[in-house]
Amino acid sequence: MFISAFNPSAWTPQELLLIYAAILVGGRGNPRGVILGTFVVYVGFIELTRYLPSPASRPDFGPALRQVLIGLLIILMLKFRPEGILPERAGGRQPRRPAPGQAPGLAAGPPAEPAGAVAGAGPASADLADQEGGPQ
Questions:
Q1: Which pTM was predicted?
Q2: Which phi and psi angles does 22 have, rounded to 5°?
C-alpha cells in the first residue's frame, strides 16, 4: 500500500515536458486525444530514440537529443496544429443517443406538455392573436 500525497515539486522538468507534449499533441479538449498523444509521444519519442547511437565520449547525448526533439514537437504542434491531433468537438459534449427500446422523445429535448393542455393555447398564441388584431 502506498501512503503519499501529490506533490508538484516531485515532478522533474523532463517529466513535465513529456506530460505537456502528450496533452498538446493529442488535443487539450478531448480525453481520447490526450491518450493518443501520450501514446505518440511515449512510443515515438521515448522508445524509438532509445535506439539512436550515442557517441562513446557523450553518453548523455541520447537523452538530451530526446528532450530537444520533444521541445521541437511542442513548438511545431503549437504553430501548425494548436488544437492537437483530435481536437475538441465543435458543440462540446453531444447528448447521448437513446438506448435500444427507449422512445426517442424520452432521451433528451424539451419537456412534453401536460396531459390536459390544449395545443396552441399558450402565451405564444395570445401574442399571435394580438398581432393579427383578433380576440384573445
A1: 0.56
A2: -65, -40
Helix (H) or strand (E) holding 15: helix 13-26
Interval 27-47: pLDDT, tens: 888 889 989 999 988 888 788
Which residue, 55, 58, 26, is CA-closest to 42? Answer: 26
Identify whether 136 is part of a domain. Answer: no
Residue 131 has pLDDT above 60, yes or no: no
- Say how many domains are in the chain: 1
Instruction: Compute CA distances 102 → 97, 99, 106, 113, whole Å.
Output: 10, 5, 7, 19
Domain containing 30 equals 11-80
Cα four-point dihedral sign 89, 90, 93, 96:
negative
Q: Look at residue 17 and tell me if it is in a domain.
A: yes
Whether 56 is in a domain gets the answer yes
